[in-house]
Design a protein that fits this description.
By secondary structure, the chain is an alpha/beta fold. It folds into 2 domains: 9-68 and 367-404, Urease, subunit C, domain 1 (Roll); 70-357, Alpha-Beta Barrel (TIM Barrel). The protein is 36% helix and 21% strand. It has 15 helices and 16 strands. It has helices spanning 84-91, 96-101, 106-115, 118-134, 150-166, 189-206, 223-236, 252-258, 272-279, 289-295, 302-307, 328-337, 343-349, 352-357, 383-388; strands at 9-17, 29-37, 40-46, 57-60, 65-68, 70-72, 137-143, 170-178, 211-216, 239-244, 263-266, 284-287, 312-314, 375-378, 395-400, 403-404. Strand 15 (395-400) and strand 16 form a beta hairpin. It starts with 8 loop residues before the first strand and ends with a strand.
Length: 406
Protein backbone atom coordinates (compact mmCIF):
# COMPACT_ATOMS: atom_id res chain seq x y z
CA UNK A 1 0.00 0.00 0.00
CA UNK A 2 1.33 3.46 -0.86
CA UNK A 3 1.82 5.89 2.03
CA UNK A 4 -0.54 8.82 2.25
CA UNK A 5 0.60 11.65 0.01
CA UNK A 6 0.73 14.26 2.79
CA UNK A 7 2.35 12.07 5.44
CA UNK A 8 6.03 11.53 6.08
CA UNK A 9 7.42 8.11 5.19
CA UNK A 10 10.65 6.92 6.77
CA UNK A 11 12.72 4.15 5.20
CA UNK A 12 15.01 2.99 7.97
CA UNK A 13 17.50 0.34 9.14
CA UNK A 14 19.17 0.57 5.73
CA UNK A 15 22.51 -1.24 5.73
CA UNK A 16 24.16 1.29 3.40
CA UNK A 17 22.70 4.30 1.57
CA UNK A 18 24.69 5.81 -1.31
CA UNK A 19 23.55 9.44 -1.59
CA UNK A 20 25.79 10.30 -4.61
CA UNK A 21 26.98 13.84 -5.26
CA UNK A 22 29.55 15.65 -7.36
CA UNK A 23 32.42 14.52 -5.16
CA UNK A 24 34.53 11.72 -6.63
CA UNK A 25 34.76 9.95 -3.29
CA UNK A 26 31.21 10.19 -2.00
CA UNK A 27 30.76 7.97 1.04
CA UNK A 28 27.91 5.59 1.83
CA UNK A 29 25.89 6.19 4.98
CA UNK A 30 25.71 3.16 7.28
CA UNK A 31 22.63 2.26 9.35
CA UNK A 32 20.82 4.89 7.35
CA UNK A 33 17.32 6.27 7.03
CA UNK A 34 15.54 8.29 4.35
CA UNK A 35 12.61 10.57 5.16
CA UNK A 36 10.16 11.45 2.38
CA UNK A 37 7.17 13.79 2.18
CA UNK A 38 4.98 14.56 -0.82
CA UNK A 39 7.38 12.74 -3.15
CA UNK A 40 10.44 14.72 -2.05
CA UNK A 41 13.36 13.80 0.18
CA UNK A 42 13.30 15.83 3.40
CA UNK A 43 16.17 14.17 5.26
CA UNK A 44 18.90 11.56 4.94
CA UNK A 45 20.49 10.44 8.19
CA UNK A 46 21.85 7.58 10.25
CA UNK A 47 21.19 5.85 13.55
CA UNK A 48 17.95 6.67 15.34
CA UNK A 49 17.56 10.20 14.04
CA UNK A 50 14.30 9.03 12.44
CA UNK A 51 12.67 9.01 15.89
CA UNK A 52 11.98 12.72 15.38
CA UNK A 53 9.13 11.58 13.07
CA UNK A 54 6.91 9.58 15.50
CA UNK A 55 3.79 9.85 13.31
CA UNK A 56 5.52 8.71 10.11
CA UNK A 57 4.89 5.58 8.09
CA UNK A 58 7.92 3.39 8.84
CA UNK A 59 9.28 0.96 6.24
CA UNK A 60 12.14 -1.25 7.35
CA UNK A 61 14.81 -2.05 4.75
CA UNK A 62 17.06 -3.95 7.11
CA UNK A 63 20.07 -5.56 5.45
CA UNK A 64 19.48 -3.81 2.11
CA UNK A 65 21.24 -0.96 0.33
CA UNK A 66 19.67 2.11 -1.27
CA UNK A 67 20.96 3.94 -4.33
CA UNK A 68 19.41 6.73 -6.39
CA UNK A 69 17.10 5.58 -9.17
CA UNK A 70 19.06 4.64 -12.26
CA UNK A 71 18.80 7.07 -15.18
CA UNK A 72 19.16 5.75 -18.73
CA UNK A 73 20.34 8.82 -20.61
CA UNK A 74 20.40 7.41 -24.17
CA UNK A 75 17.69 5.16 -25.63
CA UNK A 76 15.63 4.78 -28.80
CA UNK A 77 12.43 3.63 -27.11
CA UNK A 78 9.72 3.92 -29.76
CA UNK A 79 9.93 1.72 -32.83
CA UNK A 80 8.20 -1.24 -34.44
CA UNK A 81 9.49 -4.69 -35.37
CA UNK A 82 12.74 -6.41 -34.49
CA UNK A 83 15.91 -7.39 -36.33
CA UNK A 84 16.98 -10.78 -35.00
CA UNK A 85 17.34 -12.11 -38.55
CA UNK A 86 20.12 -9.58 -39.14
CA UNK A 87 22.06 -11.00 -36.21
CA UNK A 88 22.10 -14.39 -37.93
CA UNK A 89 23.16 -12.78 -41.22
CA UNK A 90 26.01 -10.95 -39.47
CA UNK A 91 27.15 -14.19 -37.88
CA UNK A 92 27.19 -15.70 -41.36
CA UNK A 93 29.60 -12.98 -42.49
CA UNK A 94 27.38 -10.39 -44.16
CA UNK A 95 28.42 -6.79 -43.66
CA UNK A 96 26.15 -4.06 -42.35
CA UNK A 97 26.27 -2.33 -45.76
CA UNK A 98 25.16 -5.51 -47.52
CA UNK A 99 22.27 -5.86 -45.10
CA UNK A 100 21.36 -2.20 -45.58
CA UNK A 101 21.41 -2.54 -49.38
CA UNK A 102 18.95 -5.43 -49.15
CA UNK A 103 16.47 -3.28 -47.20
CA UNK A 104 17.65 -4.21 -43.73
CA UNK A 105 19.29 -2.14 -41.02
CA UNK A 106 17.75 1.12 -39.86
CA UNK A 107 15.68 1.42 -43.03
CA UNK A 108 13.84 -1.79 -42.14
CA UNK A 109 12.96 -0.34 -38.73
CA UNK A 110 11.87 2.90 -40.40
CA UNK A 111 9.55 0.98 -42.74
CA UNK A 112 7.94 -0.97 -39.88
CA UNK A 113 7.63 2.10 -37.65
CA UNK A 114 5.93 4.08 -40.40
CA UNK A 115 3.43 1.26 -40.88
CA UNK A 116 2.71 0.79 -37.18
CA UNK A 117 -0.26 2.49 -35.51
CA UNK A 118 0.02 4.78 -32.53
CA UNK A 119 -1.47 2.04 -30.34
CA UNK A 120 0.99 -0.58 -31.54
CA UNK A 121 3.95 1.69 -30.86
CA UNK A 122 2.53 2.66 -27.47
CA UNK A 123 2.00 -0.95 -26.35
CA UNK A 124 5.47 -2.05 -27.41
CA UNK A 125 7.17 0.90 -25.72
CA UNK A 126 5.09 0.48 -22.57
CA UNK A 127 6.25 -3.12 -22.23
CA UNK A 128 9.84 -1.96 -22.68
CA UNK A 129 9.43 0.63 -19.92
CA UNK A 130 8.05 -2.04 -17.60
CA UNK A 131 11.20 -4.10 -18.15
CA UNK A 132 13.39 -1.04 -17.59
CA UNK A 133 11.57 -0.34 -14.34
CA UNK A 134 12.27 -3.88 -13.15
CA UNK A 135 16.00 -3.19 -13.65
CA UNK A 136 15.83 -0.14 -11.38
CA UNK A 137 15.54 2.55 -14.05
CA UNK A 138 13.38 5.46 -12.92
CA UNK A 139 14.13 8.05 -15.65
CA UNK A 140 14.66 7.49 -19.38
CA UNK A 141 15.78 9.73 -22.23
CA UNK A 142 14.33 8.59 -25.55
CA UNK A 143 15.07 9.68 -29.11
CA UNK A 144 12.90 9.66 -32.20
CA UNK A 145 14.57 8.90 -35.53
CA UNK A 146 12.79 5.82 -36.86
CA UNK A 147 10.32 7.83 -38.91
CA UNK A 148 12.54 10.07 -41.05
CA UNK A 149 9.42 11.83 -42.26
CA UNK A 150 7.09 14.41 -40.78
CA UNK A 151 4.21 12.14 -39.78
CA UNK A 152 6.15 9.32 -38.14
CA UNK A 153 8.64 11.49 -36.28
CA UNK A 154 5.71 13.36 -34.71
CA UNK A 155 3.95 10.05 -34.00
CA UNK A 156 6.96 8.70 -32.12
CA UNK A 157 7.19 11.81 -29.97
CA UNK A 158 3.45 11.80 -29.26
CA UNK A 159 3.75 8.20 -28.06
CA UNK A 160 6.44 9.31 -25.61
CA UNK A 161 4.29 12.20 -24.41
CA UNK A 162 1.35 9.87 -23.80
CA UNK A 163 3.53 7.36 -21.95
CA UNK A 164 5.00 10.12 -19.80
CA UNK A 165 1.51 11.03 -18.66
CA UNK A 166 0.59 7.47 -17.59
CA UNK A 167 3.72 5.46 -16.86
CA UNK A 168 5.52 5.93 -13.51
CA UNK A 169 8.90 6.44 -15.17
CA UNK A 170 9.97 9.98 -16.04
CA UNK A 171 10.60 10.31 -19.79
CA UNK A 172 12.72 12.98 -21.46
CA UNK A 173 12.15 13.27 -25.20
CA UNK A 174 14.77 14.07 -27.85
CA UNK A 175 14.00 14.81 -31.50
CA UNK A 176 16.39 12.92 -33.77
CA UNK A 177 14.91 13.18 -37.22
CA UNK A 178 18.51 13.60 -38.43
CA UNK A 179 19.28 9.97 -37.60
CA UNK A 180 19.85 8.86 -41.19
CA UNK A 181 18.90 9.76 -44.75
CA UNK A 182 15.81 7.92 -46.03
CA UNK A 183 16.04 6.36 -49.49
CA UNK A 184 13.82 9.04 -50.98
CA UNK A 185 16.30 11.76 -49.95
CA UNK A 186 19.66 10.05 -50.38
CA UNK A 187 20.60 12.48 -53.17
CA UNK A 188 18.84 15.45 -51.53
CA UNK A 189 20.66 15.93 -48.24
CA UNK A 190 20.06 19.67 -47.89
CA UNK A 191 16.38 19.28 -48.72
CA UNK A 192 16.01 16.56 -46.09
CA UNK A 193 17.62 18.65 -43.35
CA UNK A 194 15.36 21.56 -44.29
CA UNK A 195 12.37 19.23 -43.91
CA UNK A 196 13.60 18.20 -40.46
CA UNK A 197 13.91 21.88 -39.51
CA UNK A 198 10.24 22.29 -40.34
CA UNK A 199 9.44 19.26 -38.17
CA UNK A 200 11.50 20.83 -35.37
CA UNK A 201 9.30 23.92 -35.47
CA UNK A 202 6.20 21.77 -34.98
CA UNK A 203 7.88 19.80 -32.21
CA UNK A 204 8.63 23.06 -30.40
CA UNK A 205 5.11 24.39 -30.89
CA UNK A 206 3.57 21.17 -29.52
CA UNK A 207 6.19 20.84 -26.77
CA UNK A 208 7.03 17.29 -27.81
CA UNK A 209 10.76 17.28 -27.01
CA UNK A 210 13.32 19.02 -24.83
CA UNK A 211 16.40 18.17 -26.89
CA UNK A 212 17.57 17.78 -30.48
CA UNK A 213 20.20 15.23 -31.54
CA UNK A 214 21.95 14.43 -34.84
CA UNK A 215 24.07 11.53 -36.07
CA UNK A 216 27.34 13.30 -36.87
CA UNK A 217 29.30 10.60 -38.66
CA UNK A 218 31.06 9.87 -41.92
CA UNK A 219 28.42 8.78 -44.42
CA UNK A 220 25.60 10.27 -42.36
CA UNK A 221 25.77 13.98 -41.45
CA UNK A 222 28.93 16.07 -41.66
CA UNK A 223 30.37 18.45 -39.10
CA UNK A 224 29.10 21.47 -41.04
CA UNK A 225 25.63 19.97 -41.51
CA UNK A 226 25.46 19.01 -37.84
CA UNK A 227 26.57 22.45 -36.69
CA UNK A 228 24.01 24.24 -38.87
CA UNK A 229 21.19 21.92 -37.78
CA UNK A 230 21.95 22.09 -34.06
CA UNK A 231 22.41 25.86 -34.13
CA UNK A 232 18.95 26.08 -35.67
CA UNK A 233 17.61 23.86 -32.88
CA UNK A 234 19.25 26.03 -30.23
CA UNK A 235 17.64 29.13 -31.72
CA UNK A 236 14.27 27.43 -31.28
CA UNK A 237 15.05 26.77 -27.62
CA UNK A 238 16.10 23.12 -27.68
CA UNK A 239 18.97 21.70 -25.70
CA UNK A 240 21.33 19.91 -28.07
CA UNK A 241 23.05 16.53 -28.11
CA UNK A 242 25.34 14.86 -30.64
CA UNK A 243 25.89 11.26 -31.71
CA UNK A 244 29.62 11.88 -32.05
CA UNK A 245 32.69 10.01 -33.30
CA UNK A 246 31.15 6.55 -33.10
CA UNK A 247 33.11 5.09 -36.01
CA UNK A 248 35.45 7.82 -37.27
CA UNK A 249 37.26 10.73 -35.56
CA UNK A 250 35.18 13.30 -37.38
CA UNK A 251 35.36 15.93 -34.65
CA UNK A 252 31.89 15.55 -33.18
CA UNK A 253 33.18 15.80 -29.60
CA UNK A 254 34.85 19.15 -30.35
CA UNK A 255 31.67 20.38 -32.04
CA UNK A 256 29.69 19.41 -28.95
CA UNK A 257 31.98 21.61 -26.85
CA UNK A 258 31.76 24.48 -29.33
CA UNK A 259 27.97 24.37 -29.26
CA UNK A 260 27.85 23.91 -25.47
CA UNK A 261 25.87 20.73 -26.06
CA UNK A 262 24.34 19.02 -23.06
CA UNK A 263 25.95 15.74 -24.11
CA UNK A 264 28.20 14.07 -26.65
CA UNK A 265 27.34 10.39 -27.11
CA UNK A 266 29.25 7.26 -28.26
CA UNK A 267 32.78 8.80 -28.55
CA UNK A 268 34.51 5.53 -29.49
CA UNK A 269 36.80 7.18 -32.05
CA UNK A 270 37.28 10.68 -30.61
CA UNK A 271 40.71 12.28 -30.88
CA UNK A 272 42.64 12.95 -27.70
CA UNK A 273 42.68 16.69 -28.29
CA UNK A 274 38.89 16.68 -28.61
CA UNK A 275 38.48 14.66 -25.43
CA UNK A 276 40.68 17.16 -23.60
CA UNK A 277 38.36 19.94 -24.77
CA UNK A 278 35.40 17.87 -23.57
CA UNK A 279 37.08 17.48 -20.18
CA UNK A 280 37.23 21.26 -19.77
CA UNK A 281 33.56 21.73 -20.64
CA UNK A 282 30.18 21.07 -19.03
CA UNK A 283 29.20 18.66 -21.82
CA UNK A 284 28.56 15.14 -20.50
CA UNK A 285 30.29 12.23 -22.24
CA UNK A 286 27.65 9.49 -22.63
CA UNK A 287 29.21 6.05 -23.20
CA UNK A 288 27.32 2.99 -24.40
CA UNK A 289 29.04 -0.30 -23.46
CA UNK A 290 26.15 -2.57 -24.48
CA UNK A 291 26.54 -1.39 -28.08
CA UNK A 292 30.24 -2.22 -28.06
CA UNK A 293 29.46 -5.60 -26.53
CA UNK A 294 26.71 -6.48 -29.01
CA UNK A 295 28.67 -5.33 -32.08
CA UNK A 296 31.94 -6.82 -30.77
CA UNK A 297 33.66 -3.44 -31.01
CA UNK A 298 36.17 -1.74 -28.66
CA UNK A 299 34.72 -0.13 -25.57
CA UNK A 300 34.87 3.60 -24.93
CA UNK A 301 38.04 4.72 -23.17
CA UNK A 302 36.37 5.87 -19.99
CA UNK A 303 39.58 5.92 -17.95
CA UNK A 304 41.22 8.35 -20.36
CA UNK A 305 38.11 10.54 -20.44
CA UNK A 306 37.90 10.68 -16.65
CA UNK A 307 41.62 11.47 -16.45
CA UNK A 308 41.01 14.36 -18.87
CA UNK A 309 38.28 15.68 -16.57
CA UNK A 310 35.21 14.48 -18.50
CA UNK A 311 31.98 13.83 -16.63
CA UNK A 312 31.02 10.37 -17.89
CA UNK A 313 27.52 8.91 -18.05
CA UNK A 314 26.72 5.28 -18.90
CA UNK A 315 23.56 4.43 -20.85
CA UNK A 316 22.03 1.40 -22.58
CA UNK A 317 21.51 2.77 -26.11
CA UNK A 318 18.43 0.53 -26.21
CA UNK A 319 17.53 0.15 -29.91
CA UNK A 320 16.62 -2.67 -32.31
CA UNK A 321 19.86 -2.75 -34.30
CA UNK A 322 22.90 -2.42 -32.06
CA UNK A 323 21.67 -2.74 -28.46
CA UNK A 324 18.40 -4.67 -28.17
CA UNK A 325 18.52 -4.78 -24.37
CA UNK A 326 16.90 -2.79 -21.58
CA UNK A 327 19.44 -4.06 -19.03
CA UNK A 328 21.24 -0.93 -17.86
CA UNK A 329 22.65 -2.98 -15.00
CA UNK A 330 24.64 -5.05 -17.48
CA UNK A 331 25.95 -1.85 -19.09
CA UNK A 332 27.05 -0.71 -15.63
CA UNK A 333 28.81 -3.99 -14.95
CA UNK A 334 30.58 -3.93 -18.33
CA UNK A 335 31.76 -0.41 -17.52
CA UNK A 336 33.54 -1.84 -14.49
CA UNK A 337 34.75 -5.12 -16.01
CA UNK A 338 35.74 -3.87 -19.48
CA UNK A 339 36.12 -0.09 -19.18
CA UNK A 340 37.92 -0.16 -15.82
CA UNK A 341 35.65 2.33 -14.12
CA UNK A 342 35.25 2.00 -10.35
CA UNK A 343 31.88 1.03 -8.88
CA UNK A 344 31.48 4.55 -7.47
CA UNK A 345 32.28 6.11 -10.84
CA UNK A 346 29.68 3.94 -12.53
CA UNK A 347 27.02 4.66 -9.93
CA UNK A 348 27.69 8.35 -10.48
CA UNK A 349 27.53 7.74 -14.25
CA UNK A 350 23.95 6.41 -14.10
CA UNK A 351 22.69 8.88 -11.51
CA UNK A 352 23.93 12.47 -11.15
CA UNK A 353 25.97 12.55 -14.39
CA UNK A 354 23.11 10.94 -16.31
CA UNK A 355 20.74 13.51 -14.79
CA UNK A 356 23.03 16.28 -16.07
CA UNK A 357 23.01 14.67 -19.52
CA UNK A 358 19.24 15.19 -19.71
CA UNK A 359 18.95 18.47 -17.82
CA UNK A 360 17.36 17.05 -14.66
CA UNK A 361 20.20 17.39 -12.15
CA UNK A 362 18.14 19.77 -9.98
CA UNK A 363 15.49 17.13 -9.27
CA UNK A 364 17.03 13.71 -10.05
CA UNK A 365 20.26 11.79 -9.67
CA UNK A 366 21.09 11.95 -5.95
CA UNK A 367 19.47 11.36 -2.59
CA UNK A 368 19.58 14.80 -1.02
CA UNK A 369 16.85 16.94 0.56
CA UNK A 370 14.66 18.73 -1.96
CA UNK A 371 15.08 16.23 -4.77
CA UNK A 372 12.55 13.65 -5.96
CA UNK A 373 12.52 10.50 -3.83
CA UNK A 374 13.48 8.19 -6.70
CA UNK A 375 15.50 5.30 -5.31
CA UNK A 376 16.26 1.62 -5.72
CA UNK A 377 16.49 -1.00 -2.99
CA UNK A 378 19.16 -3.58 -3.82
CA UNK A 379 19.36 -6.99 -2.21
CA UNK A 380 23.11 -6.99 -1.67
CA UNK A 381 25.47 -6.08 1.18
CA UNK A 382 27.41 -3.32 -0.58
CA UNK A 383 28.02 -1.63 -3.93
CA UNK A 384 31.00 -3.79 -4.90
CA UNK A 385 28.83 -6.91 -4.57
CA UNK A 386 26.37 -5.46 -7.10
CA UNK A 387 29.12 -5.38 -9.75
CA UNK A 388 30.66 -8.67 -8.67
CA UNK A 389 27.35 -10.53 -9.21
CA UNK A 390 27.01 -9.51 -12.85
CA UNK A 391 24.25 -10.62 -15.18
CA UNK A 392 21.48 -10.99 -12.60
CA UNK A 393 18.93 -8.50 -11.31
CA UNK A 394 19.54 -7.57 -7.68
CA UNK A 395 16.74 -4.98 -7.57
CA UNK A 396 14.25 -5.77 -4.83
CA UNK A 397 12.09 -2.63 -4.86
CA UNK A 398 11.85 0.59 -6.85
CA UNK A 399 10.39 3.83 -5.53
CA UNK A 400 9.52 6.86 -7.65
CA UNK A 401 8.65 10.07 -5.81
CA UNK A 402 8.37 8.02 -2.65
CA UNK A 403 5.86 5.53 -4.06
CA UNK A 404 6.67 1.87 -4.47
CA UNK A 405 6.29 0.98 -8.16
CA UNK A 406 7.77 -2.55 -8.24
Amino acid sequence: MCPAENKISVFYKVNLLYPVNDLEDFKPIANAYLAVKEGKIIEVGSGKGYEKYPEANFISLEGKIIVPGFIDAHTHLVYAGSREKEMIRKLAGESYLDILKSGGGILNTVKETREASFGELYSKAEATLDRMLAFGITTVETKSGYGLDFETEIKQLEVVKALNEKHPLTLVSTFMGAHALPDSYKDKREEYLELMKEVLKVVRTRNLASFCDIFCEEGVFSISESKDFLEFAKELGFGVKIHADEMTPLGGAALAVELKATSAEHLLASRDEDLRKLGKSDTIAVLLPLTSFYLDKPFGNARKMIDYGCNVAIASDYNPGSSPSENLQLAMQLAVLKMKMTPKEVLKAVTINAAKAIGLEDTKGSLVPGKDADFVVLDCPNLDYFFYRFGINLVEKVYIKGKKVT
